[in-house]
Design goal:
α3 runs parallel beside α8. Helices cover 35% and strands 32% of the residues. A five-stranded mixed barrel has the order 5-9-8-6-10, surrounded by four helices. The N and C termini lie far apart (38 Å). The chain is globular and about 50 Å long. It is an alpha/beta fold. The chain is built from ten helices and ten strands. β8, α7 and β9 form a beta-alpha-beta unit.
Length: 248
């Protein structure tokens, strides 16, 4: 069973076997899911290459950016818990970063609560596979720095709501029954990475700071995808991330 996957025995191999010795270039990193935002970062900020996540189906470059007096790593993350969690491990190896700021879009499970507000997750439901390899089995994993993110958003006078979210690997298996069950437990949004990435960070003792913007709406009679493009690519998330980086 996947719930039996967690153990602390010796691993068979790690990033050193693929990439050599670890680098120590900076302590903070942006986890970006929008190609448009990432292209803007490359066009706007001075940067240098730190490494390349190598896969047989493509390469993911990692850079160190100069942003408002800070050196901060950044890369275009793969989507989905397993790949995004693996990316974080590789990026730590390339850069030494141990503070990861992750932002992206989510589906709203309660549009009355999330409309016009950023979502700051407090816990995530573990309907994915990666987290069970990095944390003991449980339905939810706590998002440890939620209070820190909430404080920063309030300092910046940004509208926000806190609540549980639902992490799933199966985008086309978000069913009515699951929506109702998660909403009854206090989930306000659904996304695809958080539970796994948080479990990885907890395992290695790293810090994760996460916020979301809801785009598609699931709690209406007709599925509404009209806000998804803006939730994915609006540049405000980048500027907020820079402000978070200044404060952590």
């Amino acid at each position: 069973m996947i719930t039996d996957a967690f153990d602390k025995s010796e691993v068979l191999f790690g990033p050193k076997d693929f990439y050599g010795e670890q680098k120590h270039l900076c302590d903070k990193c942006m986890v970006v899911f929008s190609e448009q935002i990432f292209e803007y970062m490359l066009e706007t900020y001075t940067h240098e290459a730190a490494g390349i996540i190598r896969c047989c189906n493509g390469m993911t470059p990692v850079y160190i950016f100069e942003m408002e007096g800070m050196k901060i790593a950044g890369y275009l993350s793969h989507i989905g818990s397993a790949l995004a969690g693996g990316d974080v491990i590789d990026v730590n190896w390339f850069t030494g970063a141990s503070k990861f700021i992750m932002f992206g879009s989510a589906g709203s499970l309660d549009s009355d609560l999330t409309n016009g507000k950023f979502v700051i997750p407090t816990e995530s439901y573990r309907e994915e596979g990666l987290s069970y390899n990095y944390a003991p089995p449980a339905d939810y994993i706590k998002i440890k720095n939620a209070k820190v993110v909430k404080t920063i958003f309030d300092e910046l006078h940004l509208p926000n709501v806190t609540g549980k979210v639902w992490t799933t690997d199966a985008i086309y298996r978000e069913t009515k029954a699951k929506l109702e069950a998660r909403k009854a437990e206090g989930c306000v949004a659904v996304e695809m990475e958080l539970a796994g990435v948080q479990a990885v960070c907890d395992f290695y003792g790293w810090d994760l700071y996460d916020f979301l913007v809801t785009g598609d709406v699931l709690d209406q009679a007709v599925y509404d995808v009209s806000g998804l493009a803006d939730a994915n690519h609006n540049m405000d998330k980048l500027y907020i991330t820079i402000e978070i980086a200044k404060r952590i």
